[in-house]
Amino acid sequence: MPVEAKVERKTAFATGFRDTIDTLMATIQALYLSDEIPWVIGYSGGKDSTATLQLVWHAVAALPKEQRQKPVHVISTDTLVENPIVAMWVEHTLHKIRDASDEQEMPIQAHRLTPDPTDSFWVNLIGKGYPAPRPKFRWCTSRLKINPSNRFINDLVRQNGEAILVLGTRKAESVCRSANMARYERTSTRELLSTHGDLDRSWVFTPIGDWSNDDVWQYLMQVKNPWGYRNKDLLGMYQGATEDGECPLVVDTSTPSCGDSRFGCYVCTMVEQDKSMEAMIRNDHEKEWMTPLMEFRNHYLDIKVDRQHRDFRKMNGSLMVHNGRLVHGPYKQYYRETLLRELLEAQQRVRDAAYRGEAPEIVKDFNSITLEELDEIRRVWVVEKHEVEDRLPGIYRDVTGEEYPGRAFNQSSTFGSEEMRLLTEVCREQGDEEGLHFELVRELLHIEDRHRTMARRAGLYKALDKALERSAFESEAEAEQFALRRQEAVNAARDMIKEIHPNCFDTLIEEG
């Protein structure tokens, strides 16, 4: 058989590794000294952001102390549902960065950013009932990652007028990424910097934009980490996250690279499975403690079969039809309670593994959900969803064996769990199989109870009308028939108008 010729991979180090790095360091130094605009480095703990931060650190450290005055902010956004191994790695790294920056008298400041409790994954999923993210309803990215970082950057811009974002994005990551980077470079008015598509008065600098995966690893393996971490440990983490457990440094196309390993949220439902977490568990028995989290994600966040657990109405109570059937909305109460219970169970199993010596000591205090999130979920359930039974403290107590430690809840109500149990029985006796009558009466009672002590009962009738309108159907089947008839009537009216005025809708679109 003919021997296949090896094709050398493209590298950014064609002129020599040391010369390339020295030239890039000089470029970074010149840009750093060219103005007073503060820098913001996006740091995820992965290879690209590590290489970027390391380059900037070495470049700035090589300057005389009196020239190291402009602040460099390192921001890391923790979505609170990150792969736990990576999350602990990043948190520990941020501590190391702070300590090393102080010791070396560097202008580098590390910040851990998190989403507001009202924006968190669990508050939206378990509290509000948003179905797990999917291609046509990807509600997570902006809330968990973009908003916290943009808020930090916008605050910095307000204080300083501008900001320069130093990012580890690379053109080799994808065709789409390469096209976007090239487009913003063309619209820039400053050398080395590109414009930011969404953030006003913010520039983007991508020092490793032309590097390949292997260039990144070559740099990390040959240049010492300046804040005291071993880059070989980072390589080991990537290695553990690959399916076959291998992560070689490559020199030609015959050798695969580990650079495509992806770390992210373990609850992500935009992919079939979290291959990196599964590989970590499979390749290293010391990481088997994450199994309960993986099992929770795979069993309870399966978007292919979750329709049965969702309300036939949208979040605002409206009906939507697609392909002849209702588009289901948020998770029902029983499933949201199930999700919370099972998430706390997974958390407890992880902690128990640590107490048995089967997981690191630090995992004894592992939290799959924060107390602030639990408090907000409780508020949403009782105040916004009128679930006056207030079941969250009981669920917490059942799973953990401890009393709920959250903040005192001031929502006083005439009705509690026992009253709701009796109401449920009465409604079932009247044929309320789907619980729709119970939900309506409970909501009406809660609305009236909340307005009872007000001096002015403004908004009472509007709230009552909204509740009645939302619950105007005896069953889901009746609601679907109504929605289909309404859609047929709308389509018929549209067809009639088009017959009389063929270009009517085109004109309206143009005028709009």
UniProtKB/TrEMBL annotation:
Phosphoadenosine phosphosulphate reductase domain boundaries: 40-222
Pfam families: PAPS_reduct, Sp-DndD
Gene3D superfamilies xrefs: HUPs
InterPro entries, A to Z: PAPS_reduct_dom (IPR002500), Rossmann-like_a/b/a_fold (IPR014729), Sp-DndD (IPR046882), Sulfate_adenylyltrnsfr_sub2 (IPR050128), SulphurTrfase_DndC (IPR017598)
Recorded GO MF terms: catalytic activity
UniProt protein name: DNA sulfur modification protein DndC
Native source organism of the sequence: Natronocella acetinitrilica
